Structures are given as C-alpha cells and as structure tokens.
Amino acid sequence: MSKKIIIVGGVGGGATVAAQIRRTNKTAEILVLERNGYVSFANCGMPYYLSGTITDRQKLIYPEEKFAQKYDLTVQTHANVTKINRNQKSVVYEKHQTEHSVYYDILILSPGASPVLPDIEGLQQANTFPLRTIEDMDEIEKFIQFNNPQSAAIIGGGFVGLEMVESLHNRGLSCSLIDSSEHVLKRIDKEMAIHIDEHLQEKGITLYVNDGLKSFSDDGTSLLLSSEKTIQADMTIMAIGIKPNTALAIDAGLEIGETGGIKVNQYMQTTDPHIFALGDAVEVTDFITGEPAHIALAWPAHRQAFIISSYLSGNPIYDDGIIGSSILRVFDLTITATGQNKQTLIDNGIEFEETIMKGYSHAAYYPGSKELWMQIVFDKNTGQLFGGSVIGFEGADKRMAVLATAIKGKLTVADLASLELGYSPIYSSAKDPLNILGYKAMEQLGN
C-alpha cells in the first residue's frame, strides 16, 4: 500500500519537499494544504515586481494546476489546517467555511513565518503593509495604482526593508527608512554597514537609525518616532521581522526550540517520528557554534526538503548545520554575508580575530575597477574561518561564494591565502583580494 503524505504549507519549503518526494517515490499519495491562494511563488521576487523591474506578475507564480499535474499530487489552496490529531494521525482543515479531516502516514509541516505587526497606536491597515505573500504584494500594488502616493516610510532595515526602499524609490516615492539598531542590516558588523548607510543617503533616502516607530496619526500618514521626530508618509511598509508559525505544532504537543522555531533532529524530524518540519518555522543548528538558530532563508528550506525526501526514500543524509549565506542588492551596492559576525561570536563566548580591508573588483589598471570592502572573523589560535562579509559595486557575490565554501570546508586564513583563483585583469588581480585578505590575516596571527 502506498503511503499518504500530507504537507502543510507550500512555497519554498512545502512545495519543494513535495516535488523532491515525487522524484524518488512515484506511488505515494501526496496532498499539499496551503492556507493562502498560491502554493508556489517566488517570494524573493516580489520587491522587484513592485519596483517595476519584473513587469509580468505571472512570472512569479507557479500555477496550482500546473504544479499538481507535473508532480502528480493534490493541492488544496485556501485550506487552513486547524488541528493535528497525532493519536489518530489526522489533520483537520477548513476550506470555504467547511471542515475536513484527512489521515496521513507522514505529515510534513511547512507553515512558514508571519511578519511581526506590533500594536501601534493609530495604525491604519488601509495604508500600512507587510510583504510576505502574493496577496500582500497585490495590496501594495493596488494602493500605489489607485492612490498615487508620493512618500513612503519603511520600518526596519533588514532584507525586506532594504529591498522595498529601493523598489519604492524606483517608483518615484520619497522614502524614509527607520531602524532601531545603530545601522541597517544587523547581520553586518558596524564597520562594514557604514558603507550601506552612506550609499542609502547618497541615493536620497532619509535614514533614521537608533530610532523606532512610536505611533501614527492623521489617518496613518504622520509617524511619531521614539526620538519624538515626526515624519510624513503616504504609505508605510512594516518590515521589522518575522516570527515562526508554531501554533499548530504547539497545539499538537510538538517540542519548540529555544529560538522559537519547531525543534527538529538532523533529519528534520520533530519529536513525533511521523511528523517532519522545514523552512522558516523550524529551529536549525548553526554550523560554526553548534548552537540553535533561526535562519529564514530560501537555500536552507530547499536543502531541508532534500534531506526529508532522502530520509523517506531510505537514503538518509543529515543536516550538519547552517552558515546562513545571504546576498542582496541595494541600489548599486551588493551586500553579502556568510557565517558568523563579531557580535554573534561575542554572544557565544568565542574568541576570534578580525581582518578588514578594501580592495578592488579587478585590476586597477583595467577600466571600471570598483571598490570592494571585505571582512573576515576567524579563530585566533588556528585561523579557521568563522564568517565574513563582502560589500561592493562589482564582484562581491563571487567573493562571498568563495568564503562560504571555505567556511563549510573548515578552511583557515592560510588556506584563503593559498587558494588558486582565476586571474585576468578583467575579473581580478594576480592575487585576488581574498588572497590578500588571507595574507593580512596570517600576519595578524604572526604566521
């Protein structure tokens, strides 16, 4: 008898694990229950649709019927799972105000995360928006189309906030960015983040750091900040963070980790061996520290889908930890980070050394060479790489990719200096800036 596999939630986690399972199991009965209207879509592409860079909305969406047909499975959208009955191995979901109950052999949870929307005095839903789903994107686009806003406030300087600043600025809106930290993008250490702050201001973005949103007035168009400053904005984007959707797991008695995500083992099993979980709702293990972490990125979700499908097919592989490689563009600047930064190492009581330098994207004598800022943190005794960030106008992405590979391979700064990277004056220097960074770090260690 073929197994019945129910997957709660779609998008990067649920839709991917459904596709992965079908590739290795042609007979399983697979049912995907998605509470929103789209089972699979490119959520990382939404800011670029709102900017006008992506003009065809449908390019972001994998149609439900096409997805179901390609992978020979059943999809139910607008299906809100309300309960897991572990003893009966069944789930209850509501669709069109009707309750349904279905049984499973294997249950996979991919409920994702929800944007944090604080209860702020004067907040008006008509002109204040999160950006997490296609429905959110459509509401923002509809507001811009029908109301022709001239100004926007973006609350939060993380990935979504920075991408939306660029997107709305490109639509012609005057933008203010408010962040409670001393600089945008907490993932980046202060010495590196200063380049981001400066670039935003050069592009005409009004930046408020070490500040927060206190209240709204005037129908949500006047914002009072914690500093008592007041700014005007026709619309507001709330991008202050996300929280894992764990209510279903908690109600079912599954263990929740210390970071607030669903606790899973190295095979993505919850504390119930018949229930797996993945994506933004789970707690993962940090590759460097071995400590619990919550990392909401697309790559880990896709990898976790492969881990689950491999386990279910009888060819188990395990998750050995996440380093959290990330990249985004803000106007002309590419920002990357991988592994630990200084603050997280300090928080974990790990001793380290740091090396920072400025290089250039390729040989300075070849036209078009651009500035490149690089930082690494590493073990002060062995030189093993713990993390790094690269920021620049060209070539930052490939340097981060090398650093991510080096960290995963547990290489040292000496290894970084000895990496044989391709050279042409069009692409690099005879010694790549990463090589020079490695040599500089070796000097600090007395090597």
How would the global form be characterised? globular
The total tally of domains equals 3
Secondary structure: number of strands: 27
What is the CATH first-level class name of the largest domain? Alpha Beta
The average pLDDT value, as a whole number, equals: 96
Instruction: List the strand order in the largest sheet.
Output: 5-2-1-9-20
* Helix proportion range: 25-40%
* Class by alpha and beta content: alpha/beta
Oligomeric state, counting identical vs distinct chains: single chain
Compute the gyration radius: what is it?
A: 23 Å
Structure description:
- The chain is 28% helix and 27% strand.
- By secondary structure, the chain is an alpha/beta fold.
- The protein has three domains: 4-114 and 243-312, FAD/NAD(P)-binding domain (3-Layer(bba) Sandwich), CATH 3.50.50.60; 117-240, FAD/NAD(P)-binding domain, CATH 3.50.50; 332-445, FAD/NAD(P)-binding domain (3-Layer(bba) Sandwich).
- It has a five-stranded parallel beta sheet with strand order 5-2-1-9-20, with helices on one face. Strands 11-18-12-13-14 form a five-stranded parallel beta sheet, with helices on one face.
- Strand 7 and strand 8 (98-103) form a beta hairpin.
- The longest helix has 15 residues, at 298-312.
- The chain is globular.
- The model has no long low-confidence stretch (mean pLDDT 96).
